[in-house]
Amino acid sequence: MKIYTKKGDKGETSLIGKRVKKTNDRVEAYGTVDELNSFIGVALVSLKVDHCQDVKDDLLKIQHELFDLGGDLANVTAEKKWSLQEDAVTYLEAKIDEYWGEAPALKKFILPGGEPSAAHLHVCRTVTRRAERLTVRINDDSEVSSLAVAYLNRLSDYFFAVARVVNARANKSDILYERGGDVFHTE
Questions:
Q1: Closest to 69 (Cα-Cα) out of 170, 157, 138, 163
Q2: Half-sphere exposure of 122 (CA within 13 A, CB side)
Q3: Which of 90, 92, 105, 129 is deepest in the core (most CB within 10 A)?
């Protein structure tokens, strides 16, 4: 079996239900989700197992969910059976709360950095935000899962929280943005 089909040589690709230009908003959105999945792979291999096995487990789960989301974004058929489910969003919320409680209190903006794996997770955060914007941009005649944007919104928050936890577990401080004042208020 050959990996190339030559079907895309004229700038078109297949969604689930029709052929479109490769510049289609849906293709941009699920392509960015695929890019995010690759960056998660980089983050995964950079994590130290001894203090981040729970994070590694999360990231593997998220990689599978991103494949589900990509399929949902590519689906333009009349019958919609979404693969991504509400429990994926609630799981992320629980993990965000858990990790946010573990990291030191935060008052200022931070710069991506610290542990290499934390920096990779910040890249995942920013790519997630782009995927979210591209998903919101989809305005064709076919429905988008209502969970797609909510999931991506939570996922970017998850990456922010988990990057901070990775630094904390490695006894590295977040890099504070020096020119800014306090923006986060503790209760």
A1: 138
A2: 16
A3: 92
In CATH, what number is assigned to the domain containing residue 33?
A: 1.20.1200.10
DSSP the chain: --S--STTTTSEEE-BSSEEETTSHHHHHHHHHHHHHHHHHHHHHHS-HHHHHHHHHHHHHHHHHHHHHHHHHHB-SSS---SS-HHHHHHHHHHHHHHHHHSPP--S-EES-SSHHHHHHHHHHHHHHHHHHHHHH--SSS---HHHHHHHHHHHHHHHHHHHHHHHHTT---EE-TT--------
Tell whether 181 is covered by a domain: no
Mean pLDDT across the stretch 63-78? 95
Q: What is the pTM of this model?
A: 0.93
Flag whether 39 is in a domain: yes
| Res. 141: pLDDT tops 90 | no
Q: What is the pLDDT of residue 187?
A: 57
